[in-house]
Structure prediction request, 1165 residues.
Amino acid sequence: MQVARVLPLFVAVLSWLGTLLLGLSERNVVLPLVATGLIPVGLVLVDWLRVVRLPSFGANLAALLALLFCGIETWQRWGDESQLLAVANLMIYLQFILVFQEKNQARYWLLLLISALQVAVASALSLEMYFGGLLLVYLAIALVTLILFLFHRQQPETPAPPAAGASSDGRWPLLDAHTNLAARPPGDPLGELISWAFAAQLLRMVAATLSLAVLVFLFVPRIGRPGWRPYTTTVARETGFSETVALGDLGGMSENPEEVMRVQFLDANTGYPYQLVNEPLLRGSTLTRYVSGRWIQLPSTQQVFEGVPEDLPPASGDEVIQRTTIEPLDTEVLFAIYPVANINDDRNLAFDTNRRRLIRRDRQGIQDLSRTQYNFDLATGGIRNGKQSELAPAMQGDGLMLQLMELPDDLARLQQLADEIVGDIPITDRLARARAIEAYLREGDRFRYSLVAPPTPASGDPVEHFLFDTRQGHCEYFASAAALLLRAAKVPARLIVGYKGGDWNSLGRFYQVRQLHAHAWVEVYLGRRHLPRGWENVHGAWLTIDPTPGIDTELQVADAGWGIPSLQQLGDFSQFMWSNYVLGMNARRQSEAIYEPIARSAGFLVRGAGPTGFRELRDWLNIGFNWRAGVLAGVACALLAGLFWAGRRVFRFAARRWRRYRRRRDLARGGASRVDFYRRLQELLAKQGWRRRANQTPREFAEEVLARLSGPTQAGGGPAISQVTEAFYQVRFGQEPLSTGEAEAVTRGLDELAAALGTAPSRRVS
Amino acid sequence: MSTLDFPFRRRYLSTVCREGWLFLGVMAFVFLAALLREINLLMALFGLMGGLFLFNWRSVLVSLRGLRVRRKLPERVCAGDLLLVEVELENPRPRGTSWALVVDDTIRRRGGAADRPLEVSLLCNRLKPGDRRRLTYEGRITQRGRYQVGPARLSTSYPVGLMKSLRWLPESDELLVYPRLGRLTRRWQQLFPEGAHGSRRVDRRLGSAEGEFHNLRQWHEGDSQRWVHWRTTARRGEVMVRQFERHGTQDLLLLVDLWQPEEPDRAARENVELAVSLAATLIADVCRRGTAELVVGLAGASPDVTSGAGSTARMHDLLERLAVAEAGSDDSLPTVLGEALAAAGVSSKAVLVSTRECSWGDAARFGSLADDARFHALAAKCACIDVARADLPDYFTVE
Prediction:
């Protein structure tokens, strides 16, 4: 097989892969399918069998038609992405045309270039992690293709053998005689490329290219503004979280493990991410109006968006940064532990003042960012001593709504129950009343948590139905009941929907929040006079009430364990890294994760190993290095290295045994005219540094070696050397094959020599 | 064969190939899009492309490091004959295989018209550590003259052909291309006027260097032991020696008149080449046959007269002179003739190879020699060959 025949195959694979990547990014299966059919046909008929080819005129015409088609397509669907898709499709059409043309170097280059551009467009459209994997596959195939192409284009033209006396046909045979030079062809390189050495080199190339790519990726400063957000990404249906609550609608949907977001809580001073002592309650929407079993948001005649405050209100907790990467959802609501402050002047964070919720939308409310993956950092004031506090200061504008006390008139039984629960607790003691109602729903065996929603009553209120009839339900029932009971007890309350907890990933030190973590709970508003001592400086605060039983709020700190991360954790961690440090790499993250640590390291070097430098180094290690992950990685590397070493030993041992078996088999067959035994002798002697020079006969070589052998080595190996050398002369020059006995004697002699040389010190014949 | 060994320790030069510029263009596009719109996957792609480019750059630099190149070629070759040049590549490094090495060699004519140099590219697919590879190119150089082989260039674009690293190998070899040798036909002797053959003799003498094997005869005093034919001696019981014969060892005066007009047309230049080729063929023929005295007068841009016994060394000397001989528009033949007559013997056969008709009675040209008896003797026996004559192919052909 020649390079000229293999190259079209690799170019075809690369073209197909480019189309596949583009098709996957476009969510278009048609073009990759067409490519899967057309490209192999073109490869076989045009490149290999050479029975069909598209003439230049036809190709130009087809290209023109493709251009026209794409132009019309762009005109009909005007927009950033449409233009890009039209260009991408045009490249695919041109690729199809080129596939059916006879290939020359220019056309090969064009195909490779188009493929690279396809990948470039696909990169602009794709956000998925699998794309990274496919990109690596593409890189490996591209490398091989480019290498083959290099050899192909450097092959000298098939030389016409210089004619004797090369003369011209003209009138001046001596003047016009053609002078020509031609290189003798070097042989097809494919045979040399198919080798372990080349495979190893290819691996090194991929590794080196990747390493350089990582460096370039990490260190090229991000100076642009994130304007491009492909919206072809599949938008996850929000099955767990909903901005309105209709009791009875949840069913079994809440067990959906689809990822919603990854959340980290970082100490603002050290930047070190940590796990909260209790499960975080990430507030999404607030629901204040209850009508016939449905919680709805406040009607808003005019949506008002404003920037998120840049400072936390007084009496906030620890200085903690909430770092979130949220996937594309069908809601623009963002989730956080309140109160929050926009510390990075993120212009895509807005606050819906009517509905008291944080959304991803620019302040003018024009651009909806819910269909894109989004990273944001917020300062949160709701965490104290590593634990989300039940009481959090209200943000400006909170708690002034009469709707917090609204209660439908037809809930007489509920009103009566509320009166029973709060009993003689003074109306001014909202805190105690709230605790009593929470305890009523949460403690004891009165109510049971169930994901199966109780059947909706034909008449009557679903909450009363839950409280007095079924006594089982999911979090929305408990939260709704609590909110209405609180209002009946003259305590202002609202229903909160969001997410509770998440899967803690100890590798990446983040919470992986999924749809199944959707939750509903209640917040009670406490005015200044209802607040405990120490909260005098705030105008109000929200008390979190989670009346749903069966879920522990207190968690053990699992950080001290040494458990091996599960596959799911590894997957989540990969996704986290992909989202935060590949897709989400921006100027700020680059500064935090790369530039600043380097600057700090440089600082250590400058300051030396003095006490200050040592302290900083220790702090830095605490900040940026996960000891557990480091040890695990070290163990994994050691295991891999050990496996590699052992595998190599086994392979070499097997290869030696195989060679020995082959030699013995050949010798046992009568030796024929094979001289492998002499090759083995040379190998044995070469290990001692004795190599036969080009001007030495085998006998001279044997004499030289024998002269240099000494002691036991000479006694053990000397006869064998002479014996094998004579046998070599007999077979090689005498054309007399060794008899079975002779062959066995030679093998025995070589074994003895090997044993003798094994104890001999190495020495080199000059 | 001459061997030039030039260890390869010159400064390298790295260039971006045409394909590399295209690649850089795509990279720039990707980079700008990634940077301005902050598309990180595009930045990753840019990183991969950049990584590939940088790896290519490093790889081409490392590949050429320490390589040795040797060229082997003959010192001289006749125009139109097959020339074989061998280039040996050696990788003395303990590790690091070099791939896709290209040696670009050039052959250009020294002096004269600045012809386009001949170029040839040799590809070595793979050169393992400690390995040597021989690459060969061949060809036919059809114009006589002195040629410079080299400087050569060693380069590689491995692995992906985006960047090329190259090293100039400044050492060059000289190659002398003799005039093309033709063939004298059987009718060649008819060109000589009657009487020119009178002095031709056949010498029978002993010794293989003296001619072709002729016969065996009895041993005489003074015969070398090397000439003894032992088998016949044994058969006949007496010492027999080999006898050799040498034909036509007559001395020769060869005059080559390379005249051309001041502004020569192609016909005139072709005639010059034909005259040189005929003269070279005659010289080679005479020198191969024996050790006769050979006087050669070359009339052209640089008039020259040489004399000496025919031998291989003399043949090479004369062919070298002819290889670089240039035609002139001045008539230098009378001067050359005067010097040649002084050097040549009386019994020499004389041949004038000229690019134009020659009349010995032309007083304007040969008036200065009118009183010289040797001139008149020469005029009587000299074969004048005008290479422009139509029937020349009947006597001499160049294939």
User: Anything to note?
Assistant: Chain A touches chain B through 74 residues (CB under 8 Å). The radius of gyration of chain A is 39 Å.
